[in-house]
Write a structure and sequence with these properties.
single chain, about 375 residues, alpha/beta, Nucleotidyltransferase, domain 5, six-stranded mixed beta sheet, 10 helices, 14 strands, about 35% helix, globular, binds adenosine-5'-triphosphate, binds magnesium ion
């Protein structure tokens, strides 16, 4: 707020609609830094949530509006993210073409071969990453120094995006843009780190596995394993209602000890989710190492996030099993917030990573 009618500081919402929860954060930009104004969330028991929140845009929109109101949000300017499970993402190399239209046409022709749906039924977005010179021809061959461009292309079905638009319409929020979960997580957890980093977002029903090289998602996969898998196992094994199983799961940390005999002292009940996860992580490493357009090829560390990254000994188990550096990410690291909230924010941080990354987009 300057003296001469400078622009009023604006605030922005990041709205994350997960499989069984809604999270909202509101940031304003102060001296160019994302500053927390408020936050809120609603969690549904997995049984009630159905398969995903998108099946019923009206009910989900009403819930978004409720969380918005209860959190005391002011802005109606919202950013949302498409879940990795519904996003197509690829990195392509195309020859340099000056004409923008022709360049996009070259990208579209490549993408058309790769997408599960016809391009006409999708909305895609292309980001050109860099110009990259190809090697000169060998001796005797003509010296073609043809330049190529790398492009990140993401997309999703129009019908799916339509559901988003509906949710926000019902919630009376103005949807500024739709991002992907991967890009939001990169903003919240990696920032400008230039290496090759894996982000593991362990949610309720799904785990997203990403490999990010120099800030660009090279691998984005979503698998149907998450904290809910553990809750359901406890329901079956202990014959208790879901809410009770959820409580027991959250208390596992107190009982965790190195005596389980598993890597990192992982509690035995977590083995059935962590073992398949390790297989998927190894598979992602292989995919990435084999990518022609990747430059680093070897992942140097893993950042875990998502509500189920709270499960005890998860980073320790992964670190020992994969013999690498694994730690819980701090999505608040680049955000200014009141010191007295530090403990609460630390507790909810892993669940809020996507929402935080979304609200940060408007600060860029
Ligand atoms: N303290 C805790 N200890 C263990 N698990 C926890 C804890 N807090 C939250 N969880 C689990 O985290 C999960 C919710 O995480 P998150 O909010 O990241 O998922 P989501 O985004 O709603 O779902 P998805 O990513 O599958 O779409 C639930 O399974 C919940 O039981
Ligand atoms: Mg999530």
């Amino acid at each position: 707020m300057g003296l001469f009618g400078k622009k009023k500081p604006k605030s922005f919402l990041g709205v994350d609609i997960g499989a069984s929860s809604i999270k909202i954060v509101e940031f304003e930009s102060k001296k160019g830094r994302a500053t927390l104004l408020t936050y809120g969330y609603a969690e549904l028991p997995s049984m009630e949530a159905g398969d995903t929140m998108f099946e019923d845009p009206k009910a989900t929109g009403a819930l978004v509006a409720r969380v918005w109101k209860e959190a005391g949000c002011k802005s109606t300017s919202a950013m949302a993210a498409l879940p990795t499970s519904n996003v197509f993402s690829t990195i392509l190399s195309i020859p340099e073409v000056k004409d923008k239209k022709l360049r996009q046409a070259a990208v579209d022709a490549e993408v058309e071969k790769l997408t599960p749906l016809p391009l006409s039924e999708m909305i895609t977005q292309t980001t050109f990453l860099d110009g990259k010179k190809e090697k000169k021809g060998k001796k005797g061959e003509p010296k073609t120094k043809q330049k190529t461009f790398r492009a990140l292309v993401t997309g999703s079905a129009k019908t799916f995006i339509q559901k988003y638009i509906e949710i926000f319409k019902v919630a009376k929020l103005s949807l500024q843009a739709i991002d992907t979960e991967s890009l939001a997580l990169i903003r919240a957890l990696i920032g400008k780190d230039k290496g090759a980093i894996m982000i593991l977002d362990i949610g309720s029903k799904r785990t997203n596995i990403m490999i990010v090289e120099k800030g660009v998602p090279f691998v984005s996969r979503s698998i149907n394993i998450g904290g809910n898998t553990v809750t359901q196992q406890l329901v079956q094994a202990m014959k208790v209602p879901e809410a009770e199983a959820e409580r027991i799961k959250r208390d596992l940390g107190m009982a965790a000890s190195t005596a389980s005999g598993l890597a990192g002292g992982l509690p035995k009940v977590l083995e059935p989710i962590m073992q398949p996860l390790v297989n998927e992580i190894r598979y992602a490493f292989q995919l990435y190492a084999g990518m022609e357009l990747a430059e680093v090829k070897e992942v140097e560390k893993i950042i875990v996030t998502g509500g189920s990254s709270h499960l005890p000994r998860v980073p320790e188990y992964l670190a020992e099993t994969l013999n690498m550096n694994v730690y819980r990410g701090d999505p608040w690291a680049r955000v200014v917030y009141p010191a007295e909230l530090a403990a609460v924010l630390e507790e909810i941080g892993p669940r809020m990573s996507v929402a935080i990354g979304l609200a940060m987009r408007e600060m860029e």
